[in-house]
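Field guide to reading this record: the first block holds the primary sequence, the second block holds the structure written as discrete tokens, and the final block holds curator observations. Each block starts with its own label. This record concerns Arginine deiminase, catalogued under organism Anaerovirgula multivorans.

BLOCK 1 — SEQUENCE
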Amino acid sequence: MTNSNEIFVYNEIGKLKSVLLHCPGEEIENIVPDYLRRLLFDEIAYLKQARKEHNQFADLLREEGVEVLYLTELMAEILENKEVRNNFLEEFMEEGRVGTDGIRDAIREFFAPMTSLDMIRKCISGIRTGELSHIKPKSLGDMVRNPYPFYLDPIPNLYFQRDPFASMGQGITLNVMYSDTRNRETLFAKYLFDYHPRFKNIERWYNRDKSHPIEGGDELILSEKVVAIGISERTDAVAIEKVAKNLFNSNETFDTVLAFDIPKTRAYMHLDTVFTMVDYDKFTIYPGIESPLDVYSITKGKEGLSISYEADQLSSILKKYLHLPAVDLIRCGNGDIIAAGREQWSDGSNTLAVSPGKVICYDRNYVTNEALRKRGIEVLEFQSYELSRGRGGPRCMSMPLAREKI
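BLOCK 2 — STRUCTURE
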């Protein structure tokens, strides 16, 4: 297959070998009602239960023979280097919009005695104003009273590890997030791929210094030839074209990008909230996107990209590009409009395949899970009372680093 030092992802369903996770931490307890929208949450989650559920998820992965890596532990290894640690903190404060010298000095002093692991956890959980008691006023901004309760915002969306970067072949897209609230998340990935010995020198098909957003929940690797990317609320068509150009000008095997133009709403924030692959010829889909769905194929032309509108049903498009005799679209909620709406809201279509025909799902989406089982898919379930409040499912919470080819 590949050695353990590489990104290696050429499909959505091959046996999962290695995955990156982040278990929710104290950042969840820094979500308050007044700032739900700012932090991109709809509800307040209960941390103890959320961690219990996430541990169930990780245990399921380990039981399937998957290597589970945690972002905080990898980052702590990187930050053992003092120069890297200092540079990270300066960039983190800059991107966290810490605007005054007095507060910056206080934050440096606050972090100085911490271990690398404690520092990275605190960067994620956020710094409340009450935690910095010795700010030396150096500017007007240090003196003016500010009712906002944080000097550094928490990053509660970080347990959705799918979005900040995406594994694609033997490279990654290091993403630009749609919301400023989440853009700091990609800084962790930048340092991971710049400095961790296991992941250095990985090709980048997109970088976080670009201007147009793209998020990993919109990026699906359908085969070693075909990538699907959603044009969504959070991924721009311009970014998709740039990824396609870089892929086609590399030594990778990909020759087609299918761009799925999905409705631009929070309910369908990413392609993988409405469409995922569960077996060689089987896919979950939310029926509400089928009729308004436009698909464009992007291939390498004689001069630049060749882009065509695919005037056909989705099943026919998938058969054509994946060279399949038939395709089974398994509808969220088993096609029932009420069940589909309820279960799509809690990510019934957001499955994570651990091998062909075997997927991990939230237990609460029982109608969809039963529909999958009736189509021959083995469904592994775990509890989802609290994790689902963040509006993401098993695929959203995981970034595959290596899969077997199929």
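BLOCK 3 — OBSERVATIONS
Residues 47-63 form the longest helix (17 residues).
The two ends are 11 Å apart (CA to CA).
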